Amino acid sequence: MATITVDGREIYAKDNAILIDELLSHDISVPHFCYHPALGKDGNCRMCMVEIEGQKRPQIACDTPVKDGMIIRTKGENISRVKRQILELELINHPIDCPVCDQAGECSLQKFYMDAGLYESRLDTPKNKKLKHVDLGSNVMLDQERCVLCTRCVRFTRDITKTHELGVVVRNDHSFISTFPGKKLTNPYSMNVIDLCPVGALTSKDFRFKQRVWFLKPENAICDGCSRGCSLLVDHNREKYKDDIVFRYRPKHNDAVNGYFICDYGRLSYKKENDNRLLNAYIRGMESEFEYATLKLQRLLKRYNSKALLLISPTLSLEEMYRLKKLAVKLDLSINGYDNTFDEDFGDDMLRKSDKTPNRRSLELLGINSSRQSLERDLKDKEFILFVNRFDTDLLQNLNFEGSIGVLSSVDFTPKDKLDILVPVVSHTGRDGTFINCDDIIQYSQCQINKDIQAAKILDLVEKVFNDGIFTCKAVWESGLEEEPFLNGIKFDSVRFNSIKIEPK
Amino acid sequence: MNIILISVVIVNIILALLFSLGAAPILVWVERRVAGFIQDRLGPNRCNIAGFRLGGLIQSFADMLKLVFKEDFRAGNIKERFIFRIAPVIVFVSAFLSFMVMPFADDLVIGTQTFIMQGLPLDFGVLWFLALAGLSVYGIILGGWSSNNKYSLLGSVRAGAQVISYEVSMTLALVSLLITYGSIHLVDIVNFQSGLIFGFIPAWGIIMQPVAAIIFIITSFAEANRTPFDIAEGESEIVGGYHTEYSAMKFGLFFVGEYVAMSASSALMVTLFFGGYNIPWVGTDTLKEHFDIVMIAIIVLLPLLSYKFGGWILKNNVWPKADDKRNNESKWLIRILVMMNIFVVLLLGSFLFFGVSATTTNIAVAIMQVATFAIKLLLMNFVFVWVRWTLPRFRYDQLQDLGWKVLLPISIANIFVTAIAIVAFGA
Amino acid sequence: MGIKIVPRYGKSLKDRLYLPAIFGGMKTTISHFTKNLIDTSNIKTECYPEMQPNDITDRYRGVHRLTHREDDSVRCVACFMCATACPADCIFIEAVERTDGMAEKMPAKFSIDLLECVFCGGCVEACPCDAIRMDTGIFTFIAEKREDFVLNKEQLLNNTARKEEN
Questions:
Q1: Residues with pLDDT less than 70, chain C
Q2: Is A212 a domain residue?
Q3: Domain end: A204, A234, A255, which one?
Q4: Residue B367: its pLDDT value, please?
Q5: Nearest-5° angle of CA C113, CA C116, CA C122?
Q6: How many inter-chain contacts (B to C, CB under 8 Å) are there?
Q7: Out of A100, A214, A241, whose CB is closest to C77?
Q8: Burial code of B242-277, b = ≥16 C-beta within 10 A, e = fewer?
Q9: Which of A336, B63, B115, B177 has its C-alpha lying 20 to 30 A from B315's C-alpha?
Q10: Residues C16-34: pLDDT tens digits?
Q11: Would you call C82 an interface residue with chain A, using a CB distance cutoff of 8 Å?
C-alpha cells in the first residue's frame, strides 16, 4: 500500500500500480485518449499529464508507476497550459463538425476542450482533407478527419480479438486509420471499437443519425442473447407523441462477467425490443380484447388444471420461473422447460456461448424438468399446452399432441390460426428480473421500459390467479425465493447492485 | 274588470320586464363600455347589423344569442342533475320577482279608478324585496354544491356566509328607514320624499338617513354579489366560483340574474333614498297644476339637448376605415333624432294649442315619472359599474370584519338614534 | 448598516374610514370616463384588422423560418440544438444522411408546432449554423385545424424575412 498526495489530498494506492488507474478509481478526472483499462497504455496522446513533485517536466499518468510518498498535481496553471497546447495540436486538422457528429455529447475531445481548452483558433492554413465516409464493415463507419490517432481501435484488433484488421497508415499529420487493402472489419466483436473510440471517428452505421445521445436515457440490463449474460446499458428515449424506443445497447463495465465489451450479436439484439412485436391478443386466430383474453387464459388454466402443461422458456427470469412453478403447484399443472436453442457455431472462447438463452441454469436449479424425455412424459394425456414467452409450436409436430395450444409471446409470428389463445407479454427490457448465467453468476436486470404496446408482465398474470399482491421481483424474493437452498441466503437487495457468484451444493 | 284596468296592468308588467329583463343586455353593454372608458380603451364597438352598432349595444344581443345557442355541456361528475338545473333558475327568478314591486310612477288616476304603478300591485314592497333577495343565495349555494367541484363549493360557501353577514345589516338599516317613513308601502315612501326640508332641500332618504343610506348601499353591493364583494366568483382564486361548471343558457341565467339583481337593488335604492320617481322640487300635484309650463320647457329644452347629442354622435361615432358601412350609421341616427324631435314638439304643441283633459295630464305625468325613474335607475346602475372598475375585491376576512364589526353596530346604533329622534321631535 | 424606517400608513381616522380613499379613487376613474366619453379620439386603441401595427422592430420574434444555403438548399444540419434548447418541446426533427456533399446530415422532417411554441427565441440562439430565424415579422398565424398549426419543413423554408418598410 502506498500513500500519495493528489492536489493536497492523501489517497491510498496500490504499490506499483499505474498512476492513472489509481487516480480514475478515486474519481479524480484525468483527461486521456489513448489509455484504456482494457487496452493498457500506449502513451501517444499525452493528454494525461500530471505534475509530480521532484520531476522537471509534467509526466503522463498512464506510464508512471505509483510510488509511496508521491506528490501529484492534476490542476494548476502549468497543467492547464500543457493540456491546452496538446488540444490545440489535436484540433489542428479536426473538422469541428460537432453539429453533425453522432459522438457529440459523449465525445472526450469535446469534453476536454470545454474543461481545459477554450481558446481562439490561431490557425489560418487550410486543414488536411481526408476521407469522411469509410465503411469499415460490421456496421462501423470511419471519419478519418475526426480521428485523434489514439490507436485504441488498432490495439483492440491486435490485442483483444487478435484479428489485426486495423492499422495506422501514412506518416505525420497525414496519417489515418485504415483496414488493409481489400479487407474489412469482420470479427464478431468489431463494434466495440465504436465505444472505444474517444471521438467521433468511429461511429455506428446502425445508430447513425437516429438520435442525439443526450436525449437517451441509459438503464442497466442484462443481455439475453446467450447464456453469458453480459451487462448492458440500454439507451432508450420516448420522443414527444411517440412510443418509447430502444435505440442501442452498450456494454457496461462488469469485471465479473464481460469486462468492457460485448459481441455484435448482443449489441444489435436491441432491435427485437422495437420491431416485430405482438400487438394484439388473439383467440382462435381472431383479434381479441386484451383484458378478455387474459381472463380467458385464467379460465382455461383453471378448467384444464391437471390436463394442462406449462412449457416455459429459459429466457424467463428467475422470479418468473419461481412464480410459474408455484402456479403449477396451485392449479395442479405440469411444468416443463425443454428448449433446444443451441447454436454450436455461435460460441467462442471469448464471451459468446452456444446456449443462446440467458437463464437455463435457473431451470436446473429450480428443479424444473427440461429434457426431451421429460417433455414427452409430461405431454401424455394433456389437453392444453401453454407456451410461456416462446412461440416454437413447431416442436409439437413430432410429439403427436392433439389438444389446444396457448402462447404467451412478445414476438409476432405466423400462423396464429391453430392457437387457442395468444396473449402478448412484455419483451426482455420491458420487465426486470434476475438471471443466472453459465458461470453461476446471478445478476439483476433493472431495465423496465414502459412501451405503449398493451402487453402483460408474466408476474402480473400469475398474480391474477394467486391474488396475493406480489407484483415486483423484491416481493417474489421475500415470498420465499430467497429461502431456496441454491441461493445460500442471498437477499434481493444485494443482488440488485452486484453480480454475485452462487455456489449451489 | 274593465279594459283600462287590464291595459294598465299589462303596461305595468311590460315596464317591469323592460326595467329588469330588458335592462340586462343594456347593463352588460354599459359595464363593458364604461370599463373600457375608465381604463382608456374602447370596449366593444365592432358588432353591427347593417352598419348599425348603437355604440356597441349590438354586441350584447349577439352575446345573448350566443349563450342561447351554445352547447349545454354538463360534466360527467355532476350527480344531482335536477338541483344543478334548477339552481340558475332560482337565482334568476328571485332577482326578477324582487324587481316587481318597484313603483315606476305615482298612483295613476284614470276617471274614478286608482292604479298602483308596480309590476305586482302589493303594498308591502320592502318586505317582498328582502324575502326574495335573500332567496337568490339559495340558487348560488345549490348550484355550487351540485357542481360537485371544490371551487364551486368554495364559491357557494363564500356566498352563503356573505349573505348571512350582510343581510342582517341591510335589514337593520331598513328598519331605521321604516321608522322614519312610517310605512312599508314603497309608494308612500316615495311620496314622503317628494317634500322639502327647510323649503329648498328635497326630503330624500339619503338626506334624512345618510348613515342608513351608506350601509344600505354597501350591503346591497354585497347582496348583488358585485365587486368589491364578489368573492363568490373570485376568478383569481377559485376559477369561476359557483358557476365554474355551468355553460350556455344555464350560465346565461346566472349572468343575467346578476344584472337583474343589480338593477333591482338600484331600483330599491332609488326608491328608498333618491326620491324614487319624483322629479326634484316638483311633486306630482305641482306637475299636474302647471302642466302647460312643463310642456313649454320640454319644447324648448328637447331640441337643444338633441342638438348637443347629435354633435357628439357626429364627432365620436366614426369607424377608422373610410368606406365601411358602419360610417353610415351616424347619418341615420341624426335623421331619427330629428324626426323624434319634430314628433314630440308637434304633439306637445297640439296639446298646448287645444288644451288637455285631466286623464291625459295624469297619463303624461305618469310617463314623465317613469322616465325620471328610468334615468335615476340607470345612474344608480352606473354607480354599480363605476364602483366595480374602481375598487379591488375584499379579502374574505376583511369582508367578514366589515360586516360584523362595522356595519352591524353602526346600523343598530342608527336605529336607536332614529327612534329617539322620532320620539323626541315627532314624525 | 443604515436602517431605513418605512412609514406605515393607514392609522389615521381618515385612512381608517376608507370612504375618503374610495371617493378619491372613484373621482379618478370618473375623470377618465368623462374625458373619454366626450372625445373618444384620445384613446390609443388600434382597431386591429383595419389598422395594422407599424411598430414591429427588427428584433421582433415572429413565426420561424429555415434559412437557405447559396444554392437554395436547406442550411439546417439536423443537429437538434434547437429541439434541445426548446422549453416547449415543440420542434420535431427527423435526421437523414445528406448525399449532395454540402454536409453530412440534413433534416428529413422539421416541424414546429406553433400552438405549443412560446416564441422565446431559444432555437435561434442555439442554432450553430444560423439555419433558423424568427425574423419573418408574422405576428399572427391563422389556421382552421390544429394540424395546420404544425409548420413542416417546406413551409418553414418558404417563409421569408420581413421586408423593411421605408
A1: 164-166
A2: no
A3: A204
A4: 83
A5: 90
A6: 51
A7: A100
A8: bbbbbbbbbbbbbbbbbbbbbbbbbbbbbbbbbbbb
A9: B63
A10: 778 888 889 999 999 999 9
A11: no
